[in-house]
Fold this sequence. Notes:
Number of helices: 19
Low-confidence stretches: 71-86
Largest sheet: 8 strands, parallel
CATH topology of the largest domain: TIM Barrel
CATH superfamily of the largest domain: Aldolase class I
Shape: globular
Amino acid sequence: MLRFYALGSVLILGLIATLAATMGGTGLFVLLAVAVLLIAVGAYDLFQKQHSILRNYPIIGHMRFLMEGIRPELQQYFIERNFDGTPYDRNTRSSIYQRAKGIKEEHPFGTERDLYAVGYEYLVHSTAPKPKMEAPPRVRIGGPGCTQPYEMSLFNVSAMSFGSLSSNAIIAMNKGAAAGGFAHDTGEGAISPHHRHGGDLIWEIGSAYFGCRTDDGGFDEQEFAEKAADPQVKMVHLKLSQGAKPGIGGVLPGAKVTKEIAATRDVEVGQTVISPAYHQVFATPRELVRFIAHMRDLAGGKPTGFKLCLGSRVEFLAICKAMLEEDVYPDFITVDGAEGGTGAAPVEYSDHVGMPLTEGLTTVHQALVGVGLRDRIKIGASGKVSTGVDIVKRMIQGADYTNAARAMMMAVGCIQAQTCHTNTCPVGVATLDPKRMRALDVPDKSARVASYHHQTVDQAMQIVASMGLSSFDDLEPHMLRRRITHGRIVSYADLVEPMETGQLLTGSAGSWADDWRRADPDTFTP
């Protein structure tokens, strides 16, 4: 209730001023007028639906907008000192908010990036741009073993669980996905009632098997099959690791296991639940691919795959060998970069464990090309994807489609206050506090999610046209350049060792030879 102290103080001031004014004095009437004005502002803040922070922090919440509006230098001052916790640069953050609100984007005076910094990347445009595509393409997910393929959008909602996000945030994202025609990943927290608003679902299964969990924490095949048969569930996948904290499990404290969370995740109310760092259903690459095939059978032939943050190239090559020897192939693989976000992770993991998305994505793509499987398996990319440029870059690096979590949170109002783990999110996005989550107006925010998705994909299509291309299929590695040192710029065609189709199978593995030799389909440890 402390967040309402400004409104409460004004109400008390108004009462005092009213009593004093009745006793006379012009100045007291002025004070009364000010108090009435502030009370009116506070009332408006409580009932308006566009700004969550004002609904939770009436009157005083205007200070945030005042600080940002005084001048860009002051706004940058706060960003640099992490006062608002925003890890994106100002232009990217502004772009997300403007697209979500349907505001035309215009930015004066040009770039604010250091174009001469080592690591700077840019796309190669054409002096003869092509007309923009009339409609965004879809990506068909489903290999030979799939009987219910799914047409995936180029840009989708990445994995975020109910419990990590509020019910209102989940509902807004799912309704936005339904309106915009894109997919919504449930996260490993299972399918909640709040996901049931028409948006296509990708059901993620983690190591705790929430939503299809036996009493002893194992995988419940029957429950999985029953829920996977739901027409709203379009794809299922197994989470091996998460970019923000790869190789570590999780703990859901009993205090957070409400009746609703317990029913969604198949756990006991008030009981602390451990998500192991490892899976019970497999211990080797061969067992992994067999289980993927089993999941697909249980799901009635729907597209089935797995998600991972890459650690070792040898381990992924071991999975590739297992696919070939078992003649079993996932329909898709989601590559999660180490730069991906989470509500809470040890700093050592978020900063120092796991492969960044660029390296992970190119490794998975090249490995699948090298074993002759790239045409059978689609690749998704997640990890700080937020703009049309991100979509194009990730597709050049090997992705077929992309997913976004952090940017979608910002589309529903997240200001990245970095209080996700405290249950005190100021805008009702990452909290289970009903008093706080009421600030997030679902109809308004679902429209923003759909608008953000539409404009971001549209911008990606415009960029492709500016590159002189008529299709995303025409993107090539040489079209993305990177500054290696001061004075040296190379394209991704030179930066990444090109792999010919089936090259690893012919004995001409190049620099991959030793890793390919060490990869064993019967163990993850080379």
